[in-house]
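Complex 343.
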Amino acid sequence: MTRFRGGLVGCGFFAINHLHAWRDIEGAEIVALCDTDRERLEAVGRQFGVARLYGDVEAMLAAERLDFVDVATTVASHRALVERAAAAGLPVICQKPFAASLEDAGAMVDCCAHAGVPLMVHENFRWQTPIRAVRDAIESGAIGEPFWGRVSFRSAYDVFSAQPYLAQGERFIIEDLGIHSLDIARFLFGEAARLTARTRRVNPAIRGEDVATMLLDHGTGATSVVDCSYATHTKSDPFPETLVEVDGTQGSIRLAQGYRMTVTSRQGSVTSDVSPRLLPWAERPWFNIQESVHAIQKHWVDCLRSGAEPATSGRDNLKTLALVEAAYRSATDGSSVELDSAA
Ligand code: NAD
Ligand code: 89V
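Predicted structure with nicotinamide-adenine-dinucleotide bound:
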């Protein structure tokens, strides 16, 4: 069986999860690492036993025989790195947020299409076990036709210690976290036709908004509320759980804190434990996200092998990014933004 050889660019906080997951995926291997920060590059190389280290992507692409590139840097460098990988004829994974603008995102999609290489956005939240359990429950037909939903992430977890850049950007929670929640809303309820949003900043120590409430009209006729906050202090902080509610014509689904999912149908109510696995290298409370990193990267390898388009391809992610842009526009001017991606 082919073992795809990957080069990973960006050896920071989140790349550690990518690297642990790659070690567990039989069909792929990270053979080279690249980071502009030499100290970090060498430390991560030592941690994962990768000896081929590069301070710049050109040098890595020139020296290595790769099958794909995994871009785990922050958003500012995404376009240049993705376009460079595509120019080298290599399939590429790009971390979220895919781009800071729809223009950059569209350019990356076009560039990879032109080069004939697959492009996947590392949009992992829809790969979480509890989210997939909700989708499976909807697809089983047990609750009938969904007509209302809520995708909710409310926490006061200190994300700024590990990711200081999150406190510095003009945009914060929608671009960083809401982007996952909006993608989940698409995944569960279909494409949105209209979006209205309100935001605010509660934490005075950061630049961007840390609370957002979004209302989506889906092409299916369903309405959903997507809400997120890093300013919500509760007795038992659910970080990083996304809680979901779905009302259907025949019943309902509630994904509650502690990974408990209750499906109520004409047959009654059944509550099940939809906890993610605690992988050997994972830790609480992050294990839900960490398991989804393994799942999406395995999906990438399956797609490379089969030639199928990844579920969260660059092309697919344009629709999630359009919701992010619509949310900022709506929050700024008070309008409801029409989207042209209704299913
Ligand atoms: P980080 O700042 O800790 O790490 C980024 C690394 O990339 C740094 O080491 C930096 O030196 C390196 N780098 C930047 N530009 C480079 C370039 N041109 N060439 C080589 N190296 C370069 O950031 P992070 O917290 O690891 O976040 C990385 C990305 O992961 C962000 O886009 C973030 O939104 C995303 N993220 C995703 C999840 C998720 O669940 N999907 C969770 C956390 C972070
Ligand atoms: O998933 C993410 O993008 C992370 C976090 C969960 C902390 O928001 O930045």
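The pocket of nicotinamide-adenine-dinucleotide (ligand 1) is lined by residues 9-15, 34-37, 40, 57, 72-75, 77, 81, 95-96, 122, 124, 163, 176, 289 (CB under 6 Å).
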